[in-house]
Amino acid sequence: MAKKRIVLALGHLALGTNLPEQKAAVAGTARIIADFIQDGCQIAVVHSNAPQVGMIHTAMNELPKYHQGYTSAPMSVCSAMSQGYIGYDLQCGIRSELLRRGIYKPVSTILTQVTVDPYDESFYTPMKKVGRYMTRQEADAEEAKGNYVTEVPGKGWQRIVASPKPVAIVEIDAIRALLDADQIVISCGGGGIPVMEQGNNLKGASAVIEKDLVSGLLAREVDADILMILTSVEQVSLHYGTDAQTPVREMTVAEAEQYCREGHFEASSMLPKIEASVSFIRAGKGRSAIITSLDHALESVEGKAGTVIR
């Protein structure tokens, strides 16, 4: 009997925000992933990286101010660093938890590049905030370099970058090979390293790809059975944050698309999760998507928690 293949998208609550928090959070996340493995599932992990890439971006851009000979790092390099840093903690945590249960199964992190369209409309209207707050003088210097900044009332200015849609996963063949060998793979971290094709070369883009959208793309490309997106809430709700808030246990693709048109989901939070789920399900038969919290991940597969889209 074929094993159930799950693409598991981890939100920031599964990882913490700094080094000690991440170490502690990953230990709990690893136990849940090990439960899925013990139940006979194949797992591909995608993770967020917003606090981590912001920390790295800040550090790499502050360093040259105090030490001659060092240069700042572009967003694509910061993204690659965050993939290695988070992947290292995850693969160590998962491996240790599996060995405690007497299970030997390799866990690998793939530094993953994801191509984007250079003409994606988001490059003309960047919105993703990254890095620390700056003074007006520092913001002017960023704009002089051709970067975008935005004012955050009461806090200063912050750099903003584009969030283009993912087009293709460059290392998809390696990811498939690991999954087909029944190994655990961590890939597309933080949405992947955004790159643009220029002839035979891949050029890093000053952007951040939405992690949920690339999770849906990965799930399609590896022919997963389930796309599971873990977030801060147990279920998707209509009229979220109002007196009329209504949790939804199940919805069809058609219903999900209708709710999107009606504006029930915020563009920066739930909307990309729904969009990723719909595109994944529409690309094959017998698929489902689950949106829930980390604590309810196992229950959701049994239909006891979360929101299922079919």
Primary descriptors:
8-stranded mixed β-sheet, alpha/beta, 17 strands, 310 residues
Question: Can you tell me about this structure?
Answer:
With 310 residues, this protein is an alpha/beta fold. The chain is built from 9 helices and 17 strands. It has an 8-stranded mixed β-sheet with strand order 3-9-2-1-12-16-17-15, with helices on both faces. A 4-stranded mixed β-sheet has the order 8-4-10-11. It has a 3-stranded antiparallel β-sheet with strand order 5-7-6. A hairpin with a 7-residue loop joins strand 13 and strand 14.
- Cα shape: globular
Count of alpha/pi helices: 9
Distance between the termini: 22 Å
Helix-strand string: EHEHHEEEHEEEHEEEHEEEEHHEHE
Structural class: alpha/beta
The neighbouring-strand order within the major sheet is: 3-9-2-1-12-16-17-15
Strand content: 15-25%
Helix content: 25-40%
Q: The biggest beta sheet, please?
A: 8 strands, mixed
Question: Brief overview, please?
Answer:
This protein has 310 residues and is of the alpha/beta class. 38% of the residues lie in helices and 25% in strands. Strand 13 and strand 14 form a beta hairpin.
Layout of helices and strands:
Layout: E1 5-10, H1 19-38, E2 42-47, H2 50-66, H3 75-100, E3 107-109, E4 113-116, E5 128-134, H4 136-144, E6 148-152, E7 156-161, E8 166-169, H5 172-180, E9 184-186, E10 193-198, E11 201-204, H6 211-221, E12 226-231, E13 236-238, E14 246-248, E15 250-251, H7 253-261, H8 270-282, E16 288-293, H9 297-301, E17 307-309
Parallel strand pairs: 1-2, 1-12, 2-9, 3-9, 4-10, 12-16, 15-17
Antiparallel strand pairs: 4-8, 5-7, 6-7, 10-11, 13-14, 16-17
